[in-house]
Design brief:
Blueprint lengths: L7 H13 L3 H14 L4 H13 L3 H14 L4 H13 L3 H13 L6 H18 L2 H17 L4 H13 L3 H14 L4 H13 L3 H8 L10 H15 L9 H12 L3 H9 L7 H10 L1 H4 L16 E5 L4 E4 L1 H12 L6 H16 L8 H10 L3 E3 L2
Antiparallel strand pairs: 1-2, 1-3
């Protein structure tokens, strides 16, 4: 007896599972097979749109979402997906019309949808540093909270946007409320710990950092700060076993070689056999070259916020961004962007030490350079 065809819902379910596993190519194959049998399935068109969006095929994603909306103009996931695609294409007004339309159609009670839209706006706001996207994202997050007041995730998302909008007191309140509802919400706890650290509330920051596990961290900055705090406040030695899980996680996050790193290793044999001991030595110097928390200046006080000393003895004062900018102007090319300068210095540092230096923000870049032994952070 012949095997019956799958229903459109079964195709969509299979593709959704593959999508959640990050297997976007396989998900597309399943969805396209389904569409040959069910060309009018809105869900399959929407699924293809999201898979293409994940693959950064924005023009194709837009076409798929628009095809879905021709079939069902008020489809909430189609509108949200088209809105996110429009953001990626730089068509902000069109994106906002799609997002607003979900509210006009009465989908405000769909908490997952509100969070999805809010996250899209938050991500794009972070990429472009646009406060109006944070404001809009906050509105959708607050709508989710209105519908589900005990949602720790929704409340935490409100806190993230409050922080990006400069209202740290409100952000701290929201994140603490989120953790009261769900003490295992690691993302909210790490975010709160970093805000408290930036406010020089080091013991409170460490309290929250210590209630996370190494695997909860996907960014090096929080781990560096936790190690700093433990060493400074608990007077731990550089080889203390309490720090080993965190050092191991830091190595996992910074140790993967990409194609550029592999090429540099091939071009510069000095980064080969000696890389492991050099990395171990530099990592062991974190206590020496790390921030001396006891002398950190409060942000409210007069004077430089941070201070570093380069290997040639040059001293740089100011915010993390100001320090990197001055380093670029004095040792690099002033016409280069900050990102270009940090990328170039990171590659140079990797050739010297075998340690990858992050470049996604000025503070991580400087702390990574200190771990590699290329500068000393005084405060």
């Amino acid at each position: 007896m012949a095997t019956p065809f799958l229903s459109s819902e079964e195709y969509d379910e299979r593709a959704h599972q593959l999508y959640n596993e990050g297997q976007y190519d396989d998900a597309l194959t399943v969805l396209r097979e389904g569409l040959t049998l069910y060309p009018s399935s809105v869900e399959l068109h929407v699924g293809i749109g999201y898979a293409q969006l994940a693959r950064e095929e924005y023009a194709w994603a837009r076409r798929s979402f628009e095809q879905a909306l021709v079939l069902e103009p008020e489809h909430e996931d189609g509108l949200a997906g088209l809105g996110e695609t429009m953001l990626k294409l730089g068509q902000d007004d069109a994106a906002m019309r799609c997002f607003r339309h979900t509210l006009e159609l009465g989908y405000s009670d769909d908490v997952d949808l509100m969070l999805q839209v809010g996250r899209s706006l938050f991500r794009e706001g972070s990429l472009r540093d646009k406060s109006d996207f944070f404001e809009a994202g906050k509105e959708f997050f607050e709508t989710a909270v209105q519908q589900m007041p005990d949602s720790a995730e929704a409340i935490a998302c409100v806190g993230y946007t409050q922080h990006r909008l400069g209202d740290d007191d409100a952000a701290i309140g929201s994140l603490r409320r989120s953790l009261q509802l769900d003490s295992d919400h690691a993302e909210a706890r790490i975010y709160l710990a970093n805000i408290l650290y930036d406010q020089s509330e080091y013991e409170a920051a460490l309290y929250h950092f210590e209630r996370t596990n190494p695997d909860d961290h996907w960014d090096e900055l929080g781990i560096w700060r936790l190690i700093e705090l433990k060493r400074s406040l608990y007077q731990l030695g550089e080889n203390d076993p309490e720090l080993k899980p965190w050092d191991d996680r830091l190595s996992e996050l910074t140790g993967d070689l990409d194609d550029v790193d592999t090429m540099l290793l091939e071009l510069d044999p000095r980064s080969g056999a000696d890389t492991a001991p050099a990395a171990e030595t530099a990592r062991g110097q974190l206590e020496l070259f790390g921030t001396l928390l006891s002398s950190l200046a409060d942000a409210k006080h007069d004077g430089p916020e941070h201070q570093i000393i380069a290997l040639d003895g040059t001293q740089y004062d100011g915010s993390w961004e100001e320090i990197v900018r001055r380093m670029r102007d004095e040792t690099g090319h002033p016409a280069h962007s900050m990102e270009e300068f940090m990328a170039g210095m990171s590659q140079h540092g990797f050739r010297q030490t075998g340690i990858r230096i992050p470049t996604h923000d000025a503070e991580s870049f400087l702390r990574g350079s200190a771990v590699a032994g290329l500068l000393r952070i005084v405060r």
